[in-house]
Write a structure and sequence with these properties.
heterodimer, A: mainly alpha, 10 helices, globular, B: alpha/beta, 5-stranded parallel beta sheet, 4-stranded antiparallel beta sheet
Chain lengths: 217, 215
Amino acid sequence: MSRFWALIRRELVLALHQAGDSVAALLFFVIAASLFPFALGPSGTILARIAPGVVWVVALLAALLPLNRLFGADFEDGSLDQLMVSGLPASAVALGKMMGHWLTTGLPLLLIAGPVAIMLRMDAASVPQLLASLVPGTMLFSLVGGMAAAITLGARGGTVLLPLIALPLMIPAVIFGAAGAVSAHPVGEFAMLFGLLSLFLPVAPLAAAGALRAAVA
Amino acid sequence: MRNIALHQPISGVPLLQARGLAAIRGERVVFRDVSFTLDAGGALLLVGPNGAGKSSLIRLLAGLTAPAAGQLLWRSENALDDPPLHATRLCFVGHHDAIKPGLSVAENLGLAGRVGPDAIMAALTRMDLQRFAELPARLLSSGQRRRLALARLALSDAPLWLLDEPTTGLDAASVARLEQFFAEHRKAGGMIIAATHLPLDMPGSVPFDLSRGVR
């Protein structure tokens, strides 16, 4: 277990030294979301109506940005070999990297999603429900995105391939997440979100583990 | 500091034994019928021309690649059945240095975790890098980067060292320091398998020519 926490600590140390990756994802989130008022006009009624969906979709796209470096950087400099012989199973390495992605990208996105939603004229009273839906949402981004990052590792054109694999898999999460963010009785939507989470929590690290083993072989 | 007593040999059973290992890369058989035994204090020097499969064999022994045929036995039990357990017995220094350029030299060693600052300084001193501890790793020369990668050996308490071209880019003084380090590791009961095409002085090591087995 101590090896696993050492891996999480490693991810945080590296993220602090290369803060640019996380900051770029946050800036993308803010800038892309602020394009919508420019395109649709400042009318509060339209913006407030589409705000939860915009926040969900733009957060998803922002979370994908640092993913091609998630395993790619370690793969290129040989660190991935070291992680694979660190005494952790490959699935634990994958899960640790995914948790690192959530802590350094998902969590900051979550913290800034509230102000962005209010900027899009969303009713402040409904913001907590949007954030609540984004908690399992951002975790799903990290799990599914991390799995796609592992699968496209070392593939030619992996950068383009990654969103093509990750985005279709995220459609159910976007459907139930964006609906759960605005529904008056969101029990069903949240149950679906946590159902997806309990599906991908074991499946994504296991699939990524197979991909990582194939990549270093 | 380094405790490798756990892996002292049991009489009659070799610690590490390879039986008929083979590797396939693409459609090509890189090597086959690779068999050897290695006991505490032993060293194996993999030699052979480029493409003979030295790196492939090192990666196979590290559990990074599955063998196409054959077995790798640790105390007569199949070592590759449990790769995470096998990984705790070995320290691997591969072709790449696995160095993060943005971090300092000392931080690079601390990245793997579970070691204190004293152990890191001792490891850096071992490779004569202590003066550069606070320097960003991107400023190191390629020989110094290699030494930093090799400093990981001093932090590991694993008995088996798997080294891919350890002396690439090293000056004569560093090679001598490394040979001294290898001798101490073997004296303490450790084992070394190194792939190299540069001369490396390891007394009593067995040169193992990989190109022989392939036809």
